Amino acid sequence: MDAHLLNTIANFIWGIADDCLRDVYVRGKYRDVILPMTVIRRLDAVLEDTKQQVLDMKKVLDGAGITNQWGALCNAAGQAFCNASPFCLRDLTGRSAGQKLKTDFEAYLDGFSPNVQEILEKFKFRNQIATMVEADILGAVIQKFVSRDINLSPRPCGGLPGLDNHAMGTLFEELVRRFNEANNEEAGEHWTPRDVVELMADLVFAPIADRIKDATYSCYDGACGTGGMLTVAQDRLNSIAAQSGKKVSIHLFGQEINPETYAIAKADMMLKGDGEEAPHIAFGSTLSSDQHATRTFDFMLANPPYGKSWKTDADKMAMGKKKEILDTRFNAVTQEGEPLPMIPRSSDGQLLFLLNNISKMKQDTPLGSRIVEVHNGSSLFTGDAGSGESNARRYMIENDLVEAIIALPEKMFYNTGIGTYIWVLSNRKEARRQGKIQLIDATGIKTPLRKNMGEKNCELSPEQRREIVRIFMDFEESEVSRIFLNSEFGYWKVSVQQPLLDAQGNPVLDKKGRVQPDKEKSDTEIIPFGYEGGIEGFMENEVRPYAPGAYIDPKATKIGYELSFTKYFYKPVQLRSIEEIVADLRALEQETDGMLAEILGGIQG
């Protein structure tokens, strides 16, 4: 559909809020009415042509005493949803205002099939009816949505073209985007900026674009919010396939814990097609109640919550007397066969979403799986050796899953100005990437916004997104691209001991003849994997020249992994010379009528 016409429809619906809701709702609550009403009107328009068939079928089923009717009624409607009430939405415009309209409207809503009821429940839309009736605006809102000035039907009507499923999905996403931007103090929690999503989709598909075949693919987001990341991924794959003459289909899967954003995501899936994808969007916590536990996926994208406590989930997942979390997604085994628990601190669960995705990677397909997630800096370095966070990084790196990590510009998101990083993972690395990780510093690649949106003050233009993807695809060393062996990021944390000496300077032994350590001289050293000679080489070169009897307690040695962009992309700031400073002081001297003469004389002397 023509973009101008879509924008016209979006403007009309956006204007309903100002026309009908302005004095009843605060601006931040307009969405509580407009979004569910948009869904209701679209479903209503889709069902209009088969309304009589549904009512006829219901009469037959009622006469036969059949209570489980929804399957047959949806078949009669020719959709994955239906409405068995005697009303269409347009019928209600002829009702008088007040309680009669309220009663009929509620009966109309009650007529929807259970899958639509769930969406309305999560929107909490019925809570708005009393408010609208009390303010006498319910009739006006309904009248606006069935206006002949717009057509939300898939069929042409009143001289206006029909709105196909894709166009309707695009329209709904545009409304969601507008509400998110208007409410930008909340947007960052549920909504990833479109430019970041576009870049993530590029990074998922660009490396394997020439390997896409005529096939069915799956895409998953375990923190799907309103579902925007999934739909962008779907559009991107379809575009790539079309360019190469391939016929593909992509099934979308997601899970969301916030009721309203879950409702938006599920409604979006229902509006875009025949409703088959809608059941793939699950409600609840991905961490403690994974609704896609038995599935694997081709492509996975996510923007999990940063710095958000997952203690409630942890309490639900804890098992046994020791209250341990034994979920296999978050517990692994090292290559040496040792247990590797990857449970992070309860104050930040973002790494768990990445581990959840890794657990859903396909192992038996040529493409395997690709994962792209955006995190804050905590996932790179938080956690000491042996901690859950460090163990998670160890698992990913030692299993050679990390292709690249890309540092984005600061202030890219709506509710945080901190730095963010895109992780790119694959279990089918191309040969040149095997055993290596690429770090890309894209912090300087950005376009300033003319007006800030919350914390967001910059964006990535299409050209800048292509530049970042080019740097990734080139896989070459440059000022903004560094390539390292996986081992570069690993280290040993060792406990260095010195023997306890008696008055004669001899080591003190315990009953078994073992040297006793001097606890006051105990120390800890961090030894990079790349240190020549390893732990022993470090001890000989760095420790024993100053503590000849020093030794390592092997039982206390731990392995850690961390990634530091500052270490590899640090750009020192040139300090000002004394001459420049004195020149500035002399300029100030002239402005202050000689008051600094004595100070300057002392500096020059």
How would you describe this structure to a colleague?
With 605 residues, this protein is an alpha/beta fold. The chain has four domains: 175 residues; 306 residues, Rossmann fold (3-Layer(aba) Sandwich); 80 residues, no CATH class; 34 residues. It has 22 helices and 17 strands. The protein has a nine-stranded mixed β-sheet, sandwiched between helices. Strand 2, helix 13 and strand 3 form a beta-alpha-beta unit. Helix 1 packs across helix 2, helix 1 crosses helix 9 and helix 2 packs antiparallel against helix 9. The longest helix has 19 residues. The radius of gyration is 31 Å and the shape is elongated. 38% of the residues are buried. The mean pLDDT is 91.
Which SSEs are present, and which pair or pack?
Layout: H1 3-21, H2 31-47, H3 51-63, H4 70-77, H5 99-110, H6 114-123, H7 126-134, H8 138-145, H9 165-182, H10 184-190, H11 194-205, E1 215-221, H12 228-243, E2 248-256, H13 259-272, E3 281-283, E4 299-302, H14 311-317, E5 331-333, E6 339-341, H15 350-358, E7 370-376, H16 378-381, H17 388-398, E8 402-407, E9 420-426, E10 436-441, E11 447-453, E12 456-459, H18 462-474, E13 481-485, E14 490-497, E15 523-528, H19 534-543, E16 551-552, E17 558-561, H20 565-569, H21 578-591, H22 597-604
Helix pairs in contact: 1-2, 1-8, 1-9, 2-9, 2-13, 3-4, 5-7, 6-13, 9-13, 11-12, 11-18
